[in-house]
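Illustration: RmlC-like cupin.
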Amino acid sequence: MRTLFSILFCIAAAAVYNKEYMLSRFTQLSKHIKPITGNTFNSFFNTTRTMSAAPSNTAFHGLPVIPPSEALTTTVPRKIHKSFLAIEQSEGAGARVRRSIGTPQLRNFSPFLMLDHFAIPPGAGFPDHPHRGQETITYLLSGAVDHEDFAGHKGTIEAGDLQFMTAGRGIVHAEMPRQNSDGSANVGMQLWVDLPKSLKACEPRYRDLRANEIPEATADDGKVKVKVISGQSYGTDSVKELAYTPVWLLDFTVQPGGHVKQALPKGWNAFAYTLSGTTIFSSSGVSRPIEQYHNVVFDKEGDSIEASVEDSAETESRFILVAGLPLDQPIVQYGPFVLTSRDEVVQAMMDYQTHSNGFERALNWESEIGKNMVH
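Result:
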């Protein structure tokens, strides 16, 4: 009964993230659920205790974002595997998102779990909610978003800033927009990244990256500008140790007539998301124009991507290029919990509902920014 109650309790929390899909998946899980043995619990709890023994501000536990022994080249541009429009939908409490990864079009594109292009109008937001087992990368394009969690961390990211959050063994937090005087929405991107199984029980960790900390590079006589958020572009390296799972994140602005040749680590999964304008992606003599709000998924084969904007284009284009190291592990995701087995998912539900094994501080906790939400 305790397990069944935990499942039902967490349906509501999970529905915030994927609504009808999540409800149907929980129904499937409840039909096949088995009692969790003591060995299963003990194995995960022992890992949790071992991983959490060190404070969250100790040495970096992740893998290097730039492969140390690999030569980066631009001789074989990757082909487009598929491209599709990110359709706008409701999310959270009044927010609007264009979700591309985490939909039937592209699900569990390891290590990527979800990509949202969000707009949070006045009175909307993402009030108190849990996470376990993943990292989130939030990139604010305009406005400002406040953050608060049950460990006492508080902060604000503004236009051009990023927050890298490692949920690890468990976090409960709120993400709420500033109320802009002109009534405009707060706009940004949020990417969910899977954690290696060995790090899913680590302590939560944050790293804010301010806009003025992000290196920039230019190319093609100034027609190409790139913010090197994570990774390497045109000889410029990013700030290190941002996320535990290696991810490259590059923000390109290309003027009419500009051409991009960007190396990527071999074997990594990669995609681009087009924020504005029309971008032409090319490979093996084939060029494809991609319009605004599309996700472009690249083949694994190849060492780079090529992109350009026509000379006659009326406006510049802007796109985010993302690449990540695939993780050789199962993905079992139910709402905000991302583990590698159904047993671990059920355990996460129980831990959240019983305020244990990482969620102790959730007992009677409410964020101040969530209380101040405008209704």
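Reading the tokens back as a structure: The helical segments are 2-32, 38-51, 342-354, 368-371.
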